[in-house]
Amino acid sequence: MKRLKTAIMLLMLALWLAACSTKIPILAVQLSDDDGTNVAPITKSEIYEWADYANRTWEDAGYTIVFKGQSDIVKVRSTVLNTQPPDNAYDQWELYRIAGNYLASLLPPDRVPVYFRQKGSGGWSWGPGDTNYVSLPSYANTCIAKSEKAKSCPDGCCPNNTLFSHELGHYFGLAHTFTDTPCDQATLNNADGDRFGQLAGVSEDDITDTAPDPGAACAPTTSIQCKEGTVAVNGTGFNPPWRNIMSYHDCLPEQITPDQIKAIKYSLSHPWRSRLGKED
User: Fold this and answer.
1) Tens digit of pLDDT for each residue in 176-230?
2) Residue 259 phi, psi dihedral angles, 5° rounding
């Protein structure tokens, strides 16, 4: 009887949290080239998978990512948006941003536009007013090196299940927990990504509760470090936010801090975010 009461209480708590959460509907945009070729090979089940992984973190922060299936998928022809520009091709990145924002302005304002590309393996977004969409590769085009716990992954890679969650963070105004400081110059003062937060005019240092992070390239992640371990970089002891969604450490379960939640809430007051979920 006691176990039954506990189970009922937990169910009621889960229902209460779901009812109190802010709904964030997404609109999946399946891209192809201008002539209809090179269609992004994304499926409903793969989008559900990404949304499910995102909700494992976002629901704890008070947000629920909603994807309804085929009714939330549209097809768009655009070679520009279907292609990931080269790293240093700044003019191509700017063209992508302009074209991406223009398409977003034509789509329903109550949903997050998520562009699924056929080409490229990276994902990106940025804060309100700058990048009003999320650009993702197709699910099968992401890759995390296979571990001993994931021997069933094909071609030596496992899909990056947390990529969508991370890019949503950028869409809602969150920066990385790390900077591009070279490993041999990393200190506790210059390895914190807070100053690159996106709440200009609110605070110069808008995310204050993430620890200094020299980045995954300087502090390769191991299962021990995922248990909040300390690592030495450039002679300095770091305990980065291993589980934070805006890090590159990919330690599970991922987390969003209270100050990050404040930044997300603030971004929802921006005209390009304020209509999200309002038409449901």
Assistant:
1) 999 889 999 999 988 887 765 655 544 444 688 899 999 999 988 776 667 768 8
2) -70, -35
DSSP E strand stretches across 95-235: 112-117, 134-137, 144-145, 157-158, 231-233
Helices 163-171 and 44-58 cross at an angle (nearest 10°) of 60
Can you read off the two tokens belonging to residue 273? 């975010």
The class that CATH gives domain 21-174+246-280 is alpha beta
Return the residue matching tokens 């536009």.
113
**pLDDT at position 7 over 90:** no
* Residues β-bridged to residue 134: 114
Structural tokens at position 277: 């979920």
Give start-end residues of each CATH 3.40.390 domain in the chain: 21-174+246-280
- 195: alpha, beta or left? (left if phi > 0; alpha if psi -120 to 50): alpha
CA distance between the termini of the chain: 39
Task: Show the CA angle centred on residue 14, arms to residues 10 and 15, nearest 5°.
Answer: 120
